[in-house]
Each structure stands twice: as C-alpha cells, then as structure tokens.
Amino acid sequence: MTRQLAIFASGRGSNAQNIINYFRGHPHVKISLIVSNNAHAGVLQIAANAKIPKYILDKKEYFGSGHALMQSLSDHKIDGIVLAGFLLLIPNYLIEKYNGKMLNIHPALLPKYGGKGMYGMNVHNAVWQNQEKQSGITIHEVNANYDEGNVIFKATCKLDPLDTPDDIAQKVHLLEYHHYPVIIEDYFT
Fold this sequence. Notes:
- The structure is a single chain.
- 38% of the residues lie in helices and 22% in strands.
- It has 7 helices and 7 strands.
- The chain has a 7-stranded mixed sheet with strand order 3-2-1-4-5-6-7, with helices on both faces.
C-alpha cells in the first residue's frame, strides 16, 4: 500500500525539496500534494518542477471551516501530512482528521526554543544569544499547540563558541536533511 503524503510549507522549501527527492520512486510513500499559505513561496516552484499538485491556502477559509482544504486533501487521497517550515497553527479539524498522521520538524531541541514565533533564524539567534553548547532538531507529532506534540525523534549537534547564528542554522539544516526523510519513512510505513 502506498501512503499519499502532503507537505505543508510556507517558505523556500529546502526541506520539502529534500523530502521529495528522497521519496521519488519510493515503493510505499508518494508526495502527492504541496500546501502553502504563501502564494509566493519558493516551495510552489519546487512543486511545479516536480510535477506535484499544489494548493494555496486562503487564510480565512483555513482558520474557518477548512472545507476547501479538506476537499483538496480528500481529492488527492492524502493519508498523512508532513510540516516542513509551515508557520501557521494547525486547526482542530485537521488535527482530528490526521491525528497520529501528522509530523513536524523543529530546528531546536524542544521544549527549549519552541512555541509561537520560534522558527527559522528566530530559533538560531536565540540559541546563539544564550550561548548554548548544543542545538539540534526535534521531530514530533502535531497537536493543537505549537511544538508540543509527542516527540518521535531528536538529534543534536555540538556548537562551537565561535559559531554564528548562520553557522548554527547550517549545522541544524544538515541534521534536518539527513534525518527527517528517514523518520517520515519509518513513521508512515
């Protein structure tokens, strides 16, 4: 049985690209839809290049009934959702439908540096300002609160006192690219 997954992303889509590459030709997992809340997001060009259907969220509808989004997910027979830099809170109707079938990756070791507004360089700057000796990634199930779902996997990277926030971001991205597709594969197959 092939699992049909949707990737939700808000930005340039480097993690989405990595996930798409990993599952290209996979016997049990197919990336069947890209969903974004940003009509100008780079991830939409990635979807076009990979010939993957895309869906652009209407924020009012998304936080309202969600009927159009749910119809699109149904039309594409989506079994699970993978968040890859998606910045909006997930509404209850999605959590209920995809309970235990939705993963997120966070660019820090939760519970530190999680919650609303803690994404991307905001996280890496906070890690740097607090002179942390390590950072990493947390892959977790999605619930109704930012970054509070059941933790599935963590990986760490050692930080050097001379690391800048950009250096930290680069180290964390390497962990994301290496681990996220593998964890997605294990989780959904």
